[in-house]
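Annex B. Sample input.
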Amino acid sequence: MRLAIEGLVAGYGETEVLHGIDLQLCAGESLCLVGPNGAGKSTVLNAVYGFADIHRGRILVEGRDITRLPPQGKLKEAGVAFVLQESSIFPDLSVEHNLRLGGYLMQSSAQAARATERILERHAALAARRHEPARTLSGGERRILEILRALMMDPLLLLVDEPSIGLEPRAIDSVFAMLGEFQREGKSILLVEQNVRQGLGFADRGCVLVSGRIQWVGSAVSLLHDRGVGRLFLGV
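Annex B, continued. Sample output.
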């Protein structure tokens, strides 16, 4: 099992947001968390990565308990990377330098340089603009750059918070196509997506959270076509 979340009770300070979450994610599988605003979807990602306070429960990656590892340890030791909802691009730095920042935990700058070349070789559009400031990129290109930077350390598990937010439809399609490419290569993806149809159309499985508790989990296709669940929990 790539990721196992067991009895997770978590939040921020004394405020409890998640009330006993159990989830599993296999290698090469994607799971989309959906639900109303304030349901705790982003808090699940934050708890896995170490940005939320865990009161009870365990988080395991490849069978290893990583519950108390700090975020840097999650990335370097456990192979967990996080693409935040908020933009994290440095606009005045070049595309290449933004990518290299994803390898800040590598042993040497030479290793980071090799990883940068490995990624740019697969993405000709960004490679052609490697020396340009990141501020010249479109919103979709910036989002792609953020995802590629998260892959610099070649993680096993990619956490993605609202990948489509603020993007036009064509850019959204490009972002999800790239996520699908990396999933086919064996990476696991746990994402939160505001666009329910887009997120469930991409993912293998879906999970509905309401008020910090799981109300439904199963195949994304069945959830997408379950009108009762959609009306009750998702407003679709």
